[in-house]
Every structure is written in C-alpha cells, then in structure tokens.
Amino acid sequence: MGLINPAKEVMINKIDIEDFPQIFEESEIGDIGTLKLEVRKGAVPVCESPRRFPVGVRKQIKQELQRLEKLNVIRKVEHPTEWTTNMVFVVTPKRNRVCIAPKKLNENLIRNRFITPTVEEITPMLSKAKIFSVLDAKKWIPSNEVTS
C-alpha cells in the first residue's frame, strides 16, 4: 500500500571526545559533584567488623583501593569512625571490583523522595532534539558527605 516509507539511511554523528574536554575527563569514573547524605536524628551508628580476605587477593584489593583513592572516589580514613560497613571484593575476568552494602546506614538516611517522569511526560521535550547521548551510570560514584 505504500503507507510506510522506511528510512533508507540513518545518519549517526560521532562526536569526538577531544572536541569537548570540559565534559569528558580522562577518568573512567564520572563526577557530578558532592552528594549530601543526612542521617536521622537519634540513629545509632553501626560499625561492622572488617572481613578477612584470602592472602592471594590482598595485593589486588590494595591496588584497587589505591586506584579508587587516586580517582577521588574513596578517601583513606586512619581514625575511628562511627559508621563502617563490610567490603566485598569481586573478581571478574575483565576487572576486579570493590563493593559495599551499607544496609544499616541506608536504613537511617533521610530520603529525598521524588517522582520519576514517565515516557509520556518526557517525549514532548524530545520533539526538537537533534543530538542524543547514552549515559553509562555503572561506573559513576558521587562524593558522599554524611551529616547527622
């Protein structure tokens, strides 16, 4: 019937990272500033005991922690703190990861509640857009500031 005319060619413009150095840093981890975390009044701090790691991975753990410290993702603390959580070291074929699960801290944070916009709400804003990008938030880690 000829009602639909499929696009014969899709034009994809690749923007060179070097054209926008203020947006793309050399770091593989993005930085969007400091995130302020507020702890509920009266919350009882929890210090979890550190886990023991096999001797065979301790060097890898130290290297990964030093790398994250160099990228300003984490900060070395050499004094007692009220809140601590266990660390897990995940070994993968491509790369090793340091993970934490601050469950007790998360339970005591004051949450900022907001409604995520729906596709129907966002679509009209995209009608005249010409350039789209993909954000991989997998490696983004904010600087955290905890206040009580």
UniProtKB/TrEMBL annotation:
GO BP terms: DNA biosynthetic process
InterPro entries per record: DNA/RNA_pol_sf, Retrovirus_Pol_polyprotein, Rev_trsase/Diguanyl_cyclase
Q: Which domain of life is it from?
A: Eukaryota
Its recorded name reads Uncharacterized protein
Organism this protein belongs to? Arctia plantaginis (Wood tiger moth)
